[in-house]
Design a protein that fits this description.
By secondary structure, this protein is an alpha+beta fold. It has 6 helices and 9 strands, in the order αββββαβαββαββαα. Strand 1 and strand 2 form a beta hairpin.
């Protein structure tokens, strides 16, 4: 990989980290970001505030965590990111955003899964599972999160936070923002009463309609 490619990875990871911080999804030294390019992965460095991260504080490693380029120890959650990125490219996933966002973190303390109350959650695959608690950086956490992510583009982490995936970092960030919005909506609805959930038929209807009109993709007006 050329120095230009390494620079591009670092720029993308640092930009995504700052975006997450600007939206309040990470505070101080919490959270981490990764991007796979070929057989290499860019990871935010451990102990670095994401709102002020510099490109050189993104460490480039191979798929097994060996440092290829950089002077800073990668995030303590490197194993979590690499466990996802080693296998997920088959599903088009090349980027991971791990946050400690307030509403997702709060719901992770009381729910076993976030049910589908808003149709936009279907963009993430459906009900979001809550991975059982395990110590940060541990193999147990990586295994639990990978299991929770099966068939999903996001999951909550019990008493911890959330993780969101994407085919690139802007999409992973968008998904992290969506997770937090969905968690806030569920929180607020629960304060008013029992949230009305979408049943299987309603969910199928949304998916079919979205596929028919290519929902979410910009479209030019067809003119004669």
């Amino acid at each position: 990989m050329t120095s230009t490619q390494v620079t591009a990875i670092r720029r993308s990871v640092a930009s995504a980290a700052k975006t997450l911080a600007s939206h309040g999804l990470v505070i101080g030294r919490s959270g981490n970001v990764s991007l796979r390019s070929g057989e290499l992965v860019g990871l935010t460095a451990t102990g670095v505030p994401l709102n002020a991260i510099k490109q050189e504080q993104v460490t480039v490693v191979d798929l097994f965590g060996n440092v290829v380029d950089g002077d800073w120890e990668p995030t303590s959650e490197a194993a979590l990111h690499l466990g996802i990125l080693r296998t997920s490219p088959a599903d088009g996933v090349y980027a991971v955003a791990h946050t400690h966002s307030p509403f997702a973190s709060a719901l992770s303390m009381v729910l076993d899964e976030l049910p589908v109350a808003h149709y936009q959650q279907l963009a993430l695959g459906g009900a979001l599972r809550v991975a059982p608690f395990a110590t940060f950086g541990s193999p147990q956490l990586g295994h639990a999160v990978n299991t929770a992510l099966e068939g999903r583009l996001a999951a909550l982490m019990a008493n911890h936070g959330a993780v969101a995936l994407g085919h690139d970092l802007p999409t992973a960030v968008e998904h992290a923002l969506l997770v937090e919005q969905l968690c806030e909506l569920y929180w607020r609805a629960s304060a008013l009463g029992e949230p009305r959930l979408l049943d299987a038929a309603q969910q199928r209807g949304v998916i079919e309609a979205a596929e028919e009109i290519h929902y979410g993709a910009p479209k030019r007006i067809a003119r004669p």
